[in-house]
Structure formats: structure tokens, C-alpha cells
Specification:
Number of domains: 1
Structural class: alpha/beta
Number of strands: 9
CATH topology: Collagenase (Catalytic Domain)
Number of helices: 8
Distance between the termini: 58 Å
CATH superfamily: Collagenase (Catalytic Domain)
Order of helices and strands: HHHHEEEHEHEEEHEEH
Helix content: 25-40%
Shape: globular
Radius of gyration: 24 Å
CATH architecture: 3-Layer(aba) Sandwich
Length: 363
């Protein structure tokens, strides 16, 4: 074979290799596109009916018993920050991709009962992240904060409640007759106190416009969860910022009467549990809409509104029994006991690689 023929053969082989690489790359791109198309985002929403619900709550006894302002705050932030909706969409897409890659299929017949459509049982995903510890800074802002209006004991009991609630230590208290015990889960989060700061401030009411955060900014919000304890006013127990918001306002605000074990219907520290749920991307159990608006969790039944007080099981709406004992409803603190496997699966992708709170877990 002449040198010319050898050179021609080499060129032909190189061309064939390049063509094969091109086809492989195209197939990979197609696979990525197919994977992207398989993630259904058609039900995703950011704005809710929370504003109109808040305005009407005084006329509706079912909704008047507890007030969380997280969704109204989110609506306000969406109006101010036009890029927030896209960021939340991307976080949701990452969450659904992560669950789809790790999870197992749902199957009929988990919790539920009480009339109508069947519920589903969701398997917990195997994400290999173990128990995720979240370090917490607490900022106490009161006219006499330095004289311990909010005692150290309240801080201790609040941390203990968070650790118990997110590790599934309360399901033995589920009311008789419920079939939701099968859905209750260890969410796999622990909380460690990184520091408590006390600020004497004469302001009597801070509202929900994040002004307390502006005056007393969060510390290392990318790696620590910040909680402000102050008098919010307006009958608001607390509010939280969803993942994707501005770091300067990231964290949770709680009214002092509802922080730790203080007694009363909302005095067992579960306002914090509820707000941390929002901070970790959980919606209210009823989706802040009506029966057709979802909270993006398969094993929480549809509901048309919140529940207050301590309902007798079953409390039925949307043809299914409401999961009134879920931390993301509005029932009394001592009548809520659980997160579900589906809620667990929704929270944890935030801490995986490229998750919105991955820095907290060192990812």
C-alpha cells in the first residue's frame, strides 16, 4: 500500500470516528431533552389565593384560628422581584428531577379514608445524605431583650421541638381512627443552635415586611438558618421565606408568644416547625387554593382550606379526609404530629448538589 493510500485510509478512519462521536453527542442531547420532557411542570404555580384568604379570615371561623403570613409575603416578593418566579421554577424542576432519579413509584392505598377518592402511599427516596444538620442563629428583638423577655428555656424547648418534629418522635400521639400513621415519616433533619443574639429595640410591632431583618441582618444565611423572634402584630404567628428569595431576607420570623413552650393552643413550638417547613419548600397542606390547587405532594390529600382547632377525625373536604394532624395545616400545636414521606422527599433535594440550600450540607 502506497503512502498516499495509507494517508487516505487514516483520513477516512478519522472522519468515521468524528461522525460516530457526533452521533453519540446528539443521542446524549436527545436523552437530556427526553429527560427534561419527562418532568411534568404543568401544575406548578407561584402565586396563591393567600391575599384574599387573609382578607376574609376574620369572617371565616375555620381559617381564623391561626395565621401564617408566608404565602402573602411570597406574593409580595414575587411582585417586587420579577426574577423570583423563574428561580422558584428552576428550584422546583431540580426538586422533581432529583425525586424522579431517586424515588420509587407511588402506589394506591396509603393514608386517607373518610370518604371518597383513595390516597396514595409514597416511598421515601434513598438520597444517601443521612440526617442533615441545620445550624441555627436566633435573633431576639424586644424592648427588653437583654433582660430575657424570651428566656433561654424557651430557646431550649424550641430547639427540642424542632428536633423531635423533624425526626418523627410524635406519631404515637396520632388520634384514634386515623389511617395516616402509615404516611408519617422521619424527615431526616436535625437542628443545632449556633448562637443566640439579643437586641434591645423599642419598636413594638414589626409587621411582615421584613423590616426586622433589615435592622438586624441574617448571619451567614447561605450556611445557617436564621430565626428572628419579635412581636409581629396583626394576629400573625410567623412567616418564612421560601428557597430562592433574597439572601438578605432569608429566614423565619416568629412571634414571641409562639416561640418554644409557652402554653396555650399555639404554645408548643409548632409554629416554628410549620415555618421551617416553608423554609424547606413545603406549601400549606391545602395548597392555598381550592381542591384543584395542589401542594405538590402526592400523599397529602386535597383540601379546600385550612383547619383550625383540634378536629375530630375524619374532617372531610374534596371527597377525602383532611390530614389535619400535618404540621403544614393550621390546627392547634398539640393536635399536629407529622410530616409525610412525600413532604420529606420534597425537602431533601434542596440540600443535594445544585440544590438551593446545598451549602448548608456542604454540597
Amino acid at each position: 500500500m502506497t503512502n498516499s493510500n495509507i494517508l487516505t485510509m487514516k483520513k477516512l478512519l478519522l472522519s468515521m470516528a468524528a461522525l460516530a462521536f457526533l452521533f453519540t453527542a446528539c443521542d446524549a442531547d436527545k436523552n437530556e431533552i427526553v429527560q427534561e420532557q419527562q418532568i411534568d411542570m404543568s401544575d406548578f404555580y407561584v402565586y396563591t389565593d393567600a391575599d384574599s384568604d387573609e382578607a376574609a379570615k376574620s369572617d371565616n371561623k375555620k381559617n381564623a384560628s391561626k395565621s401564617c403570613a408566608s404565602m402573602t409575603v411570597l406574593n409580595r416578593q414575587l411582585n417586587k422581584n420579577k426574577g423570583l418566579a423563574k428561580k422558584m421554577y428552576n428550584i422546583e424542576l431540580h426538586t422533581r428531577k432529583f425525586i424522579a432519579g431517586k424515588g420509587k413509584p407511588t402506589k394506591p392505598g396509603g393514608g386517607g379514608g373518610g370518604g371518597g377518592d383513595s390516597d396514595v402511599d409514597v416511598a421515601p427516596i434513598e438520597d444517601n445524605m443521612g440526617v442533615i444538620d441545620i445550624p441555627v442563629y436566633i435573633h431576639i428583638v424586644y424592648p427588653d431583650a437583654s433582660t430575657k423577655t424570651i428566656s433561654n428555656e424557651q430557646v431550649t424547648t424550641q430547639m427540642a421541638t424542632l428536633n423531635a418534629d423533624f425526626r418523627d418522635k410524635n406519631t404515637d400521639q396520632l388520634p384514634s381512627g386515623t389511617t395516616f400513621a402509615n404516611d408519617a415519616t422521619d424527615a431526616g433533619f436535625s437542628f443545632s443552635l449556633a448562637g443566640t443574639f439579643r437586641y434591645d429595640d423599642s419598636k413594638s410591632s414589626w409587621g411582615t415586611n421584613n423590616s426586622v431583618k433589615a435592622d438586624y441582618p441574617p448571619i451567614n444565611p447561605e450556611t445557617h438558618m436564621n430565626i428572628w423572634v419579635c412581636n409581629i402584630g396583626g394576629g400573625i404567628l410567623g412567616y418564612a421565606q421560601f428557597p430562592g428569595g433574597n439572601e438578605a431576607t432569608d429566614g423565619i420570623v416568629l412571634g414571641g408568644d409562639y416561640f418554644g413552650n409557652t402554653g396555650g393552643p399555639y404554645g408548643a413550638g409548632r409554629t416554628a416547625t410549620h415555618e421551617v417547613g416553608h423554609y424547606l419548600n413545603l406549601r400549606h397542606i391545602w395548597g392555598d387554593g381550592r381542591c384543584r390547587q395542589d401542594d405538590f405532594v402526592a400523599d397529602t390529600p386535597s383540601s379546600n382550606s385550612s383547619n383550625g382547632g383540634c378536629p375530630t377525625f375524619p374532617s372531610v373536604s374534596c371527597k377525602t379526609a383532611d390530614m389535619t394532624m400535618n404540621y403544614m395545616d393550621y390546627t392547634y400545636d398539640n393536635c399536629m404530629y407529622m410530616f409525610t414521606d412525600g413532604q420529606r422527599n420534597r425537602m431533601r433535594p434542596l440540600f443535594a448538589q445544585n440544590g438551593a440550600r446545598a451549602a448548608m450540607a456542604g454540597n
